[in-house]
Write a structure and sequence with these properties.
mainly beta, Catenin-bd_sf, cell adhesion, single chain, metal-binding, Cadherin_Y-type_LIR
Length: 784
């Protein structure tokens, strides 16, 4: 059985414990432990062994430190037993003497790196390496010493606390850590204290909570504090290690200061012609607080100009801006005295007992004189004038004065942009308005002009005033019919029947309204046919005196009527009413008023006859168009007396095309060279422009130059604006000139066919072989 023995020189305490246990247990020479195998039958008895060893960290010396010794009961003292060590650090950190079982630490150990090592020991036969007993596991613990100082991992710290806080107000909490063993000894037991920052702040020794130590600390006096905190191990006793950190504590602002004006009296001056809303001065109430706590509002609480001035707060500068609300007048009031107040917007209830958080100041404003424009006696003028007023008559007057002390003379004028017709004049000295041209109320009832007043000493001082002139009515227009009336009288009408009701109008506008009088001309008073009757609604009824009117006898009657108004003097006019005799139905509905209606078939109206006549005309037009189109379709497109003879011309895309190309061309014109100067009109289109035919060359019976002929026709077609290209002649290219093979066309040939020799066509290849045979056959036939 193996014993684990610790060197007494290293750990006396461990040795004492070992001796004590050996006496109690009474087994073996070393410290033994009883394992579970002891309870198993047929096994050798094992003694109790101590399974832990200790070694101090950071121990250094000239020799390796003896940690302990292994010993087995099977060792009789001979050298046949060999001790083997395995596990954490075996062979490197820990080395065992295989003969004596002594374990030495070869390196300097650090508990903070590794606190314990687990190893396995075993006794084997030195010769056979056979284990003499099962392996035993034990632990070597590194015993801590105070070799690490406390550290503030999160430092330095920043904290805030409201100013004026009571004693004991929580500020912040700091934390330090110690890498030493918190279980063994006091190496990791920390105590906190303040090195700098007293007497303003305190710290709890064990919790490290920082609190205020003085009441009513004022931010305005000192805003920031620098506190040094120390953490010491070994419970703060002598010999302990320590670490420090800094805490920057800032006092936050509270509203504990009222606003205060920099001066109690302010003086401002302002010109009387200052624009409304214009700032005239600034006042400032200073507040030692900051942010929202320093914001103030301004008000005018007293003074003789509370309705003349206003004060607002500048959000950026916190100034009070005084502005003008109403116009100032130096001549009326030359100075004002105001009392303004500045008050905090946000008040802290905790400090409300400290006094009112507001302040007042006096503001004196002096109004200075300015050269003001003239002032009219009224902002607007309304004048009335009769439309028959005489030229140059005075219709009204405007007045104005200079409000300044100097009182400059005023000159008046009319803004001609408002009186383009120049109907009015004004006296420049006294402002009397006179009539320049006649007025007509029926044309223009209102005239709106602008009068301009200018200071004679300073022409830049100008004022304007609107003047409305109303033209009053006089009875200068005679009444007349409201419209051109034409009455219709039925042949079968009855005596006393109302033929027409007429009304009258008058351009004048009497105050009591219109009242018209109607009468017939004196010579028509005893009119045998018609009479008149005045109605209550100011209209007139025309009545027939008898029946039996006839269109054949008299178709139209003219009835002059005199219309008079009730004006002073009264005006009258004569209007003639046209009465037409018409044929009516039994219900009195007018059907026809013409004498020609008698010749119409019975039961057939004029409208029906017109419809029938229109249908007949439409049918005739359709027939004429149909015949014209038929004739136009049967006519040829080109007018020509002789028969149109056509033939095919084969166009070759390349020389030697042969019979494969069979595109037809119309060369009717080429067949008649003598008609080159003739102009054949087109009938399929109607030209927009009249094209004058070009005078060509004189007809030549023989030897026509086809090249020249084609070029002439091509030129005419290109310059003809009346029609697009119609046949292939415009794209026909003259072949033969410049060609090495010459022309294959017979059009150019001016000699007879007998002069031609076509034997060479057989030499041009298979594509021209057939053409050569055709021409050869033709020559043979001629010879035959």
């Amino acid at each position: 059985m193996v014993d684990f023995t610790v060197d007494v020189s290293v750990l006396f305490l461990c040795w004492a414990v070992k001796v004590l246990l050996s006496c109690v247990l009474g087994s073996g020479t070393g410290l033994k432990r009883l394992t579970e195998e002891q309870r198993v039958l047929n096994r050798s008895k094992r003694g109790w062994v101590w399974n832990q060893m200790f070694v101090l960290e950071e121990f250094s010396g000239p020799e390796p430190i003896l940690v302990g010794r292994l010993h087995t009961d099977l060792d009789p003292g001979s050298s046949k037993i060999k001790y083997i060590l395995s596990g954490d650090g075996a062979g490197t950190i820990f080395v065992i003497n295989d003969k004596t079982g002594d374990i030495h630490a070869m390196k300097r150990l650090d508990r903070e790196e590794k606190a314990e090592y687990t190893l396995t020991a075993q006794a084997v036969d030195r010769d056979t390496n056979q284990p003499l007993e099962p392996p035993s596991e034990f632990i070597i613990k590194v015993q801590d010493i105070n070799d690490n100082a406390p550290e503030f991992v999160d430092g330095p710290y920043h904290a805030t606390v409201p100013e004026m806080s009571v004693v004991g107000t929580f500020v912040t909490k700091v934390t330090a850590t110690d890498a030493d063993d918190p279980v063994y000894g006091n190496s990791a037991k920390l105590v906190y204290s303040i090195l700098e920052g007293q007497p303003y702040f305190s710290i709890e020794p064990h919790t490290a909570i920082i609190k205020t130590a003085l009441p009513n600390m004022d931010r305005e006096a000192k805003e920031e504090y620098f506190v040094v905190i120390q953490a010491k191990d070994m419970g703060g006793h002598m010999g302990g290690l320590s670490g420090t950190t800094t805490v920057t504590i800032t006092l936050t602002d509270v509203n504990d200061n009222p606003p205060k004006f920099a001066q109690s009296l302010y003086h401002f001056s302002v010109m009387e012609d200052v624009a409304l809303g214009e700032p005239i001065g600034r006042v400032k109430a200073n507040d030692l607080d900051i942010g929202e706590n320093a914001k103030s509002s301004y008000d005018i609480i007293e003074g003789d100009g509370m309705d003349i001035f206003e004060i607002t707060t500048d959000a950026q500068t916190q100034d009070g801006i005084i502005r003008v609300r109403k116009p100032l007048d130096f001549e009326t009031k030359k100075s004002y005295t105001l009392k303004v107040e500045a008050a905090n917007i946000h008040i802290d209830p905790r400090f409300i007992s400290g006094g009112p958080f507001k302040d007042t100041a006096t503001v004196k404003i002096v109004v200075e004189d300015a050269d003001e424009p003239p002032v009219f006696s009224s902002p607007t003028y309304l004048l009335e004038v009769h439309e028959n007023a005489a030229i140059n008559s005075v219709i009204g007057q405007v007045t104005a004065h200079d409000p300044d002390v100097s009182s400059s003379p005023i000159r008046f004028s009319i803004d001609r942009h408002t009186d383009l017709e120049r109907q009015f004049n004004i006296n420049a000295e006294d402002g009397k308005i006179t009539l320049a041209t006649p007025l007509d109320r029926e044309t223009n009832m209102w005239h709106n002009i602008t009068i301009v007043a200018t200071e004679t000493r300073n022409h830049s001082q100008v004022s304007r005033v609107p003047v409305a002139i109303k033209v009053l009515d006089v009875n200068d227009n005679a009444p007349e019919f409201a419209s051109e009336h034409e009455a219709f009288l039925c042949e079968n009408g009855k005596p006393g029947q109302v033929i027409q009701i007429v009304s009258a109008v008058d351009k004048d506008d009497p105050k009591n309204g219109h009242y018209f009088l109607y009468s017939l001309l004196p010579e028509m008073v005893n009119n045998p046919n018609f009479t008149i009757k005045k109605n209550e609604d100011n209209t007139l009824s025309i009545l027939a005196k008898h029946s039996g009117f006839s269109r054949q006898k008299q178709e139209v009657y003219l009835l002059p009527i005199i219309i008079s108004d009730s004006g002073n003097p009264p005006m009258s006019s004569t209007s003639t009413l046209t009465i037409r005799v018409c044929g009516c139905s039994s219900d009195g509905i007018v059907q026809s008023c013409n004498v020609e209606a008698y010749v119409l078939p019975i039961g057939l109206s004029m409208g029906a006859l017109i419809a029938i006549l229109a249908c007949i005309i439409l049918l005739l037009v359709i027939v004429v168009l149909f015949v014209t189109l038929r004739r136009h379709k049967n006519e040829p497109l080109i007018i020509k007396d002789d028969e149109d003879v056509r033939e095919n011309i084969i166009r070759y895309d390349d020389e030697g095309g042969g019979e494969e190309d069979t595109e037809a061309f119309d060369i009717a014109t080429l067949q008649n060279p003598d008609g080159i100067n003739g102009f054949l009109p087109r009938k399929d289109i109607k030209p927009d422009l009249q094209f004058m035919p070009r005078q060509g060359l004189a007809p030549v019976p023989n030897g026509v130059d086809v090249d020249e002929f084609i070029n002439v026709r091509l030129h005419e077609a290109d310059n003809d604006p009346t029609a697009p290209p119609y046949d292939s002649i415009q794209i026909y290219g003259y072949e033969g000139r410049g060609s090495a093979a010459g022309s294959l066309s017979s059009l150019e040939s001016s000699t007879s066919d007998s002069d031609q020799n076509f034997d060479y066509l057989s030499e041009w290849g298979p594509r021209f072989k057939r053409l050569g045979e055709l021409y050869s056959v033709g020559e043979s036939d001629k010879e035959t």
